[in-house]
Write a structure and sequence with these properties.
By secondary structure, the protein is an all-beta fold. Helices cover 0% and strands 48% of the residues. The protein is globular, with a radius of gyration of 23 Å. The chain starts with a strand and ends in a 6-residue tail after the last strand.
Length: 448
Amino acid sequence: MNFSEPFKLSGLLARFSPDGQCLASCVQHRLVVRDVSSLQVRQLYTCLDQIQYIEWSSDSLFILCAMYKRGIVQVWSLEQPDWHCKIDEGSAGLVASCWSPDGRHILNTTEFHLRITVWSLCTKSVSYIKYPKACQQGVVFTKDGRYMAVAERRDCKDFISIFVCSNWQLLRHFDTETQDLFGIEWAPNGCVLAAWDSCLEYKLLLYSLDGRLLSSYRAYEWPLGIKSVAWSPSSQFLAIGSFDEKVRILNHVTWKKITEFEHPATIASKKTTVYKEVEKSPSVETEKLSFSRTRALAGSAFSTQSKYEISQVPVSLQYIKPVADRANPKVGVGMLAFSADNCFLATKNDNSPNAVWIWDVRRLKLLVVLEQLCPVQCVRWEPRRPRLALCTASARLCLWAPGGCVAVQLPREGDIQIMSLSWHCSGDSMVLLSKDNFCVCYLEREEV
């Protein structure tokens, strides 16, 4: 495993292009585009203000840079560096910006969610979508890019509008049986739209493309309800993380619960493997890690390292009792992620911030628990194989695969405390992000 030298970064803004050839990163008001293979700078762009959000177009030809404080979006072209585009929302302000699936339209959400403006880069035309709802996830596209669903709020009632992305014509408009719609999410096959209520009421609704209510699900009534929702890549399963520290799995045939996964503070089953991260002193074994001069830092000095040990059950995990009289309590399953092959589900219970749970979806049982030294910040599955990477705001990168897990120490000179990470589309590398720096981690072929 090799690491590049560290590069400056701001706002945790570094993104691989969809085609995997470029890596864009931000340093204050500058946008730097590098070649992935060599990390040489291909383009350097200067924006009008500090960049707060970046996003590649689907064809990797354009990059969107949003400056929310000034209500401005700037678009840059990789093929024509001299071409540039500026969208100024003026007094309406700007709180969100994103690409349409075709990579030729930009959707800007104004302040107070008064409207969504659709800007065309080809015809320079403008369209408006009124009454978008201010919720966690209110604008979603189908995976094939044909349809867009928008959560709306009109006359104190929730609605959903479905648009055709090719011409932005309204396809369906229907009201939802929710008190306070909190989020919507398309199934990967684009046939079913999931909508769920705020945490004050446990309610999940499933709609067809034409707006018919296919099914509704409610696990209980009075306590806090749904905290997270995730579809499996095959669209066969829908996982619901709740504030009661359980994950419920619905099937795509009857939309009924087929099982539920609990997150107890003590792991007692002998069929579950518990990997516990423990500190160890630097040893000669670290010399086995090779760092090329072109991609890695000079020297091989390491700080305090860690390794995984298999704990004997029963194992008591670190458990934090939430403060009941404060808003947004750290309780419940706040993270769900299916592996690309549909075989595994990774979860995180906020009551146990240091632990990641990995479930075998085929056998519907708990397979592995990873207990870290520090709270887990980010968990990402590799896009092609069942391999999980996670970080804990430390200089260690942790990887799990069905064959085992490993904690890798970054070179000390990098001084990178990993806050977030993302995989390259090939799965051969990933970008590791800290507050002020980022580096690229390259996995050797035999490791892949």
